[in-house]
Amino acid sequence: MKREHLIAKLARPVTFDVAVIGGGATGLGVALDAAARGFSVVLLESHDFAKGTSSRATKLVHGGVRYLAQGDIGLVREALHERATLLRNAPHLAQPLPFVLPAYRYWELAFYGAGLKIYDALAGRAGLGATEFLTPGETLACLPTARPGSLRGGIKYWDGQFDDARLALALARTAAARGALVVNYCPVTGLRHERGRVAGLTCRDGETGQGYDVSARCVINAAGVWVDELRQADGNAIGRPVKALVAPSQGVHIVVDREFLPGEHALIVPKTADGRVLFAVPWLGKVILGTTDTPRHDLALEPRPFRAEMEFILSESARYLVRGPATADIRSMWVGLRPLVKPQGEDGEETKGLSREHTVLVSRSGLVTVTGGKWTTYRAMAEDVLAKCFEKRLLEPKPGVTANLHLIGADPAPTRRAPLSQPQGLHSYGSEAPSVQALPGAQRDLGGGLTEAMVRFAARCEYARTAEDVLARRSRLLFLDARQAGALAPEVGAILREETGVDPRVQELQELAASYLALPG
Ligand SMILES: Cc1cc2nc3c(=O)[nH]c(=O)nc-3n(C[C@H](O)[C@H](O)[C@H](O)COP(=O)(O)OP(=O)(O)OC[C@H]3O[C@@H](n4cnc5c(N)ncnc54)[C@H](O)[C@@H]3O)c2cc1C
Questions:
Q1: Helix axes 164-177, 25-37, angle to 10 degrees
Q2: pLDDT tens digits, residue range 211-247?
């Protein structure tokens, strides 16, 4: 898997069946689905795979208890079904996780208990374990650092958690194994139209600056919160201006040490002071606290938190934990932009309300746009996209196969599986661990669960080009402990440069790491 070979394939005068723009959960899911059905596929990502929203999730594979409270039964049922599918197809990257809801008022036990029993019922055979009522003592055994105060008891239920960026890489690599050409650092610079129909796109190799024309029968815009730019380009080309589809909303996460939440259970606060759900989730040896939901109109690649968001997460956490984290305890703080969808009528006119569901639109020129939804449902979203392509006769129908397709690294019957709450390490590679160990530097520990061999594997097999690619998304150190990620960058960069021969942009990673620790003004 050498980049020169991938780029050379881009230059060939062929017409792909499907060209996908965007290498996040949505685009990668579509690329894998289409490739696995036997279509020829190219996917282009302007930065690294999962550089956008798809590496910044709360890491939950969930039906969404919150949507249940809002009465979105269909949405919850579909997500619960997809939860089971993902846990089955990528068991090294997605696993069941027990949650405990501490109840400080009696009515909470009855109210949330009833809701979570409905959640179990909706999951049916896709359930991960039955919801249980806990005594105050049992609740504290699961959540040893929860405030005992007037604790009346707790409710334990099951959902899943995952490693979002590594799942994105597994999708990219599984799609490639099925024949898809997937290229990172290759922004799409424009769409090509022929007789009013979209017939392909133009892109640029981000490393050399060389431009390419790519022809495709079907072009899928899966650019996350950035879909409107391409929709507008399409609308202008065919003389039909479009209205914005996405209303971005940002979510902040704060990462602290495990001492704030030891044990194997996540904590859920079903209703914070502003009516949101707050999670404290053990993940890869740390604890993730979050998140917020703040409308944001700029579309920064690296949005930063507002001070009020950081203070809100810290103060809400302090209401439920015996020792609330302070700013000095923050190991990393990162922000993702949710692509919430403004529902559109058949004519493309905006209707009221924002949707948590995904939307698939096909323009007059045939440009297919997909956005919204959530990570958990990426596979079902991809099936919907392909169904829409068949309905609009952009592609001839072929059956889908991803429901039972193991992703690369999946080991369906491992002898022992380390939980995702444990620090990352060789186990994160699933069945590929022996291939990592076979590379030079397998015994050379760099810190943070990373070895020299893992950096080499990232460059040779996982499309890594920069120190950030390795430290943010192959390893998750930037998200777990930004200071340590900054400290490891020069060593990681030196190994990468040996492998790729290009500048690993070490200083950029160090600046980014500093910004993940900087307190908002
Ligand atoms: C704070 C937060 C928490 C969340 N938590 C969860 C959770 O716990 N569980 C869950 O299931 N879901 C969760 N989600 C939702 C989930 O993360 C998103 O729905 C999903 O990641 C969106 O993926 P995407 O591929 O549509 O967008 P993105 O991941 O942003 O991908 C779009 C990609 O397109 C690329 N791109 C843009 N323009 C171009 C171009 N011109 N050429 C080439 N590439 C381009 C971008 O670089 C980007 O990588 C969360 C979201 C947020 C914001």
A1: 20
A2: 999 999 999 999 999 999 999 999 999 999 999 999 9
Runs of H (alpha helix) within 207-304: 227-237
Give the integer Cα–Cα distance in Å for 34 and 351.
31
Establish whether residue 91 lines the binding site of ligand 1, counting it when its CB lies within 6 angstroms of any ligand atom. Answer: no
On the CB side of 362, CA atoms within 13 Å amount to: 16
Asked if residue 47 has its Cβ within 6 Å of ligand 1, the reply is yes
Tens-digit pLDDT profile for residues 142-151 = 999 999 999 9
**25 CA → ligand 1 middle, Å:** 6
**Any idea which residue has 């024309």 for tokens?**
213
Beta-bridge partner residues of 340: 247
- Token reading at 427: 């186990």
| Ligand 1 pocket residue status of 27, Cβ below 6 Å | yes
Share of the chain above pLDDT 70, in %: 97
The SS3 call for residue 353 is: coil
Per-position DSSP letters for 53-116, written without gaps between them? GGGSS--EE---HHHHHTT-HHHHHHHHHHHHHHHHH-TTTEEEEEEEEEESSHHHHHHHHHHH
DSSP codes joined into one string, 108-155: HHHHHHHHHHHHHHHHGGG--S--EEE-HHHHHHHSTTB--TT--EEE
Q: Which ligand 1 atom is the nearest neighbour of the CA of 250?
A: 53
CA of 97 to the centre of ligand 1 (A): 23
d(CA 448, CA 425): 8
Pocket flag, ligand 1, residue 224 (CB < 6 Å): yes
29 CA: nearest ligand 1 atom: 25
Contact present, 51 and 334 (Cβ < 8 Å) = no
Are residues 269 and 155 in contact, defined by beta-carbon separation less than 8 angstroms?
no
Residue type, 348: G
- Residue with the larger pLDDT of the pair 417 and 500: 500
Q: Note whether 185 and 112 are within 8 A (CB).
A: no
Mutate to test the pocket of ligand 1, among 62, 234, 374 (most ligand atoms within 8 A of CB): 374
CA–CA distance, 124 with 507 (Å, rounded to integer) = 50
How confident is the model over 280-317, as pLDDT tens digits? 999 999 999 999 999 998 999 999 999 999 999 999 99
For residues 114 and 100, give the distance between their C-alpha atoms in angstroms, rounded to a whole number: 15
